[in-house]
Amino acid sequence: MIRHIVVWKLKPSAEGRTAAENAAEIKARLQTLEGLVPGLIKLEVGIDFSRTPASADVALYSEFADREALDAYTVHPDHVAVAEFTVPLRIDRTICDYEI
Predict the structure, then answer these.
(1) Confidence check: pLDDT of 37 > 90
(2) Which string of b and e fits 18-55 if b means at least 16 CB within 10 Å?
(3) Domains in the chain and their CATH numbers?
């Protein structure tokens, strides 16, 4: 099983929306991906409430059956669209993929 974790630090405002509005939109768009890619077992999206200087704004936790399923997710057109949506909104993005 593969775990895929992504966290985003968002700009205070971008594309005419606040960071909070963009975080909510990222969450909504990511949640539409559940069930689209074979081998995607679990997808969970959270918005940070602690608001510390070290905090990220949005976190994605997902589980895949294997590396091939993660690879398929990475290039899936609906995932690519969400990924491209986040680019102008973010200051930073961190990813960790690991196998259990």
Answers:
(1) no
(2) ebeebbebbeebbeebeeebebbeebebeebeeeeeee
(3) 2-99 (3.30.70.100)
